[in-house]
Amino acid sequence: MKSLFISLFLISLFANGQNIYIKTYGNEKNKPIIFIHGGPSGNATLFEGTTAQKLADQGFYVIAYDRRGEGRSTDLSAKFTYEEAFQDLNFIYKKYNLKKAILLGHSFGGLVATLYTNKYPQNVDALVLAGALFSQQETYDHILDTLKKKYSKDSEQLRRINTVENLDKNSAEYRKGCFELAGENGFFKMPNPTPASKKLYADYEAEEFFKVNIRNKNAPLLFYQNERQNNIDVRPILKKIKTSGIPIFGIYGKQDGIFSTNQLTSLKEIVGKNHFVLLDNCSHYLFVDQQNAFLSNVKNWLK
């Protein structure tokens, strides 16, 4: 594949004095969806390399971007606050003359999407939470409690878990410790990879998007330094958004190890049973693990 930096629709834009990587997929006359990636320190490369064009083929105008200071949007002066993320989104709306758009938030991107929808409800047609964080402390507690049960007879692992558990709950070190333990224990991996998912991951790793899978290791540290809302529960905000009339949808992996059953049940109660689905044999990267089911549900909800 030719370098994606010279492919169609690749745009590196200057937003509020910052270089923002943005790429669009599909017909601009179709209903717009803005994909908001995880992080802090994430990027949209996995979504772009596997799913963006296929979602556009369902009849949407898909906009993927990397937040300021993350991924391909290099910016040494980025603050990594929610307000800064809102500014980048507002730039996208202005650049593409969008009156409204659907926000598709993955992982940490779900928090960005939820808070943006609360602040700018007039800009949002619908909010889609895809493996999105919504109650951070419950996620951290679930990770650590699950591992304490798993390693109940392993004193060395229990010491590691207890060390993380005793860190400041509003610190980058605590977040990092929880997610590192989760990653080491397969919390983000689908239980039984299918031939389709194996091919998607392999193709991604062999192509250009994987080569630009840039991670800014300083992003989480700066986020915790500059953003006061660093360990939040947005369920009250989601209830408010739903009351305002903006539809909310939730799509999650049944085996996504960072969410407890109680968490997901509480979210389902907020969004409504017809707006919520759990995909089996699926973990955190659901748009790759179970891509066809992901695309089908999103299309049925939004079209």
From TrEMBL:
GO molecular function: hydrolase activity
AB hydrolase-1 domain ranges (all copies): 31-289
Alphabetized InterPro entries for the sequence: AB_hydrolase_1, AB_hydrolase_fold, AB_hydrolase_sf, Peptidase_S33
Pfam entry (one): Abhydrolase_1
UniProt keyword terms in alphabetical order: Hydrolase, Signal
Secretion signal span: 1-17
PANTHER family reported in the protein's UniProt record: AB HYDROLASE SUPERFAMILY PROTEIN YCLE (PTHR43798:SF31), MONOACYLGLYCEROL LIPASE (PTHR43798)
Family per similarity comment: Belongs to the peptidase S33 family.
Name of the molecule in the record: Alpha/beta hydrolase
